[in-house]
Amino acid sequence: MHQIDGQTIDLQADSQPYISIPESEYLELRNQVGYWKGMHQKALLREEGLKQEIKEKDGQIRDLKNRLFGKKTEKRPSKTEKANPKSNENKRPRGQQPGSEGHGLTERPDLPVVYEQACFPQNPVCPCCGLPYTLDGSSGPETQIIEVDVKAYTRRIVRQTGTKICSCKGVPQTITAPMPPKLMPKSPYGISIWADVLLNKFRYCQPTNRLLNHYEELGLPISAGTISGGLNNLKELFEPICNRLYLQQMTEDRFHQDESSWKVLKKLKVNRK
């Protein structure tokens, strides 16, 4: 309470009291404030990471539950359908319906045609008098059968030779035609076999052992070591192609872009009890 010119003025005390502490203690408190602020920030980041991990785990759990207990594409008949099999008779069957117009046989004009003549196994005779029929050269109705003929064979190449008839010196007396080009100089197998190996392995993703078993059925047994060694030799022939593909890829402005979304999950042990 203070009096000025006979008037009483009430001055409010400071609402924030001050405490005097040593400077060393003040600095220590400042350091602790910074430390605990940093720890709080780390805790928030850790909490956010744990929330994200829980979200991913929940997604995996939902996917696994859907695989185990979700609806299947192949529906099993219900109990009512089993009890009343006559109720299914009125349902429309699958596939092409009876009486509907079909698309006919598929034309294949690009296939080569091999002409054959179907002859009688024995001379036909009249079933009444026994006299034989006179076979004429006219052609009858035709029938088409599509076949695939796959067989292994050996190319026995006889190289042509020539003998000189001149009297020139310094030239050989006889010459021999050069060998046809081979994919591997020391390999007895031709280009068709190695092309078949590459297509079956990398285009159709079939194991090499299956192809070798097929060759053995055709009378051409080939060891797996021969194919493995040949593939190692072919690797050098594909290096220019790989280098060219790499140079072409380096000119692109995007990498590892794929529109498909293949979600791969780790295999987990599921208790089916």
UniProtKB/TrEMBL annotation:
Pfam families attached to this UniProt entry: DDE_Tnp_IS66
Region span, Disordered: 52-107
InterPro entries: Transposase-related (IPR052344), Transposase_IS66_central (IPR004291)
Biased composition range(s): Basic and acidic residues: 52-92
Domain Transposase IS66 central span(s) in chain numbering: 187-268
Protein's name according to its UniProt entry: Transposase IS66 family
Species for this entry: Desulfobacter postgatei 2ac9
Taxonomic lineage from the root: Bacteria, Pseudomonadati, Thermodesulfobacteriota, Desulfobacteria, Desulfobacterales
